[in-house]
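Async update (no meeting this week)

Hi team, since we skipped the sync, here's where things stand on the single-chain job. The sequence we agreed to prioritize is pasted below, unchanged from the tracker. I ran it this morning and attached the output directly underneath so nobody has to dig for it. Comments welcome in thread, and please keep replies under the output.
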Amino acid sequence: MSNDQNRDNDDAPFVEDGRAEKATLFLRGLLQRMGMECDVELEEPNEDDDESDICLQIEGPDAGRVIGKKGQTLTALQYVLYRVVNRANLPRRHVTVDAEGYTERREETLASMATRLANQAIADGKIITFEPMNPRDRRVVHLALQDIEGVVTQSQGEGSDRRVQIIPVRKDPAPPADA
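Output:
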């Protein structure tokens, strides 16, 4: 199958095109220039990811420093790699960068906090608004609360000031039994 056929058909099987190796080498070089003592490994995407995702794991003595405050450095590295990998006229490939399992821990913490705050919103009957979040964190909150009865979520704001709101939903009173 040619790349043109693959590009035109989203259901086409994924064909390795060398971009995963390019991302791995680019990130290794970048971390080395940053003075970080780390290694980068290309991982198989997990079952939640698309098989065309590029998943990179950073490990080593300086891996914690690579995370940055609230994962900001990881997010920035991920963005740069996305731009590097998706420059060619090829199908887009999602890039995930993690260090020492930070992403999974962060998602678990956010989901737990979102559930606790959803219960609080239901009990108090008041809207709860999170601090601004990146798109990945907002998605974690929305997914964590999608099946909880009594609340809905929505994102509000623009750009880096976008935040998630947990909105309690009032239950309509039951109609009178004799109606």
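Quick observations from my side:
The helical segments are 3-8, 19-33, 63-67, 72-85, 102-124, 135-145.
The two ends are 65 Å apart (CA to CA).
Reply here if anything looks off.
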